């Protein structure tokens, strides 16, 4: 049965890329401001978890890489190569200024059609990206295709939750973040209102995992980072 409470959001690549192009100069500042820098811990936890795996070689795809905060953290793993992929040129431009390394290559491409050969990557990470994909299933199939057998997919994002704690968070993300974020970023596209709508209309963790299982992924673990809303999900091909 379709969930009647869910609104259909316009997530066309044109809309999403122009929205992120618009807020790119303020993205990092507002991210750290709204999370009181805790978002840095969520990304470093991913690096710590990946350190526990014994990779013979390490080629990473950081999908929806944006301004590269997660890419930068992943560089500490000393990978052979990281491909930072995104549909927003302005976000990628900031990434390139932030990370100067011959081991990082930026690629403008959508998750729905990845310009990589089958089994090219040992790890795929997606930080706050899956919620924005215009076709989640197609993107997950693409990720599965480009992951090597036994490769890992790590997804960090806001998920819908109906717990009491999540309701408190929803007040913050529904009232304070849009008002302050749209004002400080001077966003004509009301990007920070979209953030809240995209969380409320997204999947629960359980729904997300069930889609990935249907596509062949194995669920390793989920880490609840904040109020059962921000989670990191570890999956294996
Ligand atoms: C909220 S930012 C996250 C950036 C970064 N990963 C982080 O952790 O801060 C989401 C990024 O996803 C990108 N994005 C949205 N839809 C996409 C798609 N279909 N394919 C590739 N990138 C996409 C946006 O352009 C944006 O830069």
Structure description:
- With 237 residues, this protein is of the alpha/beta class.
- The chain has a single domain, classed as Rossmann fold (3-Layer(aba) Sandwich), CATH 3.40.50.
- It has eight helices and seven strands, in the order ααβαβαββαβαααββ.
- A seven-stranded mixed beta sheet has the order 3-2-1-4-5-7-6, with helices on both faces.
- The protein binds S-adenosylmethionine.
- The whole-angstrom Rg is 17 Å
CATH architectural label:
3-Layer(aba) Sandwich
Number of strands: 7
Q: What ligands does this structure carry?
A: S-adenosylmethionine
What structural class do you assign from the helix and strand content? Answer: alpha/beta
Biggest beta sheet summary: 7 strands, mixed
The termini sit apart by: 29 Å
The string of secondary-structure elements, in order, is HHEHEHEEHEHHHEE
Strand order in the sheet with the most strands: 3-2-1-4-5-7-6
Taken as a percent bin, the fraction of beta residues is 15-25%
Write the layout of secondary structure elements.
Layout: H1 13-35, H2 38-51, E1 59-63, H3 69-74, E2 81-86, H4 89-98, E3 104-108, E4 121-127, H5 136-146, E5 147-158, H6 164-185, H7 191-200, H8 205-214, E6 218-226, E7 230-236
Parallel strand pairs: 1-2, 1-4, 2-3, 4-5
Antiparallel strand pairs: 5-7, 6-7
The structure holds S-adenosylmethionine (SAM).
């Amino acid at each position: 049965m379709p969930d009647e409470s869910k609104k259909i959001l316009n997530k066309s690549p044109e809309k999403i890329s122009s929205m992120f192009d618009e807020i790119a100069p303020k993205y990092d500042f507002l991210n750290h401001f709204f999370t009181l820098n805790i978002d840095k811990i969520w990304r470093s936890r991913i690096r710590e978890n990946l350190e526990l795996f014994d990779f013979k070689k390490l080629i990473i795809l950081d999908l929806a890489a944006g301004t590269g905060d997660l890419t930068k953290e992943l560089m500490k793993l000393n990978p052979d190569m990281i491909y930072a992929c995104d549909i927003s040129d302005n976000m990628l431009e900031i990434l390139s200024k932030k990370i100067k390394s011959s081991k990082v290559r930026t690629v403008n491409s959508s998750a729905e059609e990845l310009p990589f050969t089958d089994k090219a990557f040992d790890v795929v990470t997606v930080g706050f990206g899956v919620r924005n994909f215009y076709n989640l299933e197609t993107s997950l199939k693409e990720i599965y295709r480009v992951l090597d057998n036994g490769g890992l997919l790590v997804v960090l994002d806001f998920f819908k939750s109906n717990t009491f704690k999540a309701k408190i968070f929803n007040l913050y993300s529904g009232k304070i973040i849009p008002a302050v974020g749209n004002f400080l970023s001077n966003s004509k596209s009301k990007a920070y209102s979209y953030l809240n709508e995209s969380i409320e209309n997204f999947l629960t963790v359980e729904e997300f995992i069930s889609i990935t299982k249907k596509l062949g992924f194995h669920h390793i673990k989920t880490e609840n980072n904040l109020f059962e809303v921000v989670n990191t999900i570890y999956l294996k091909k």
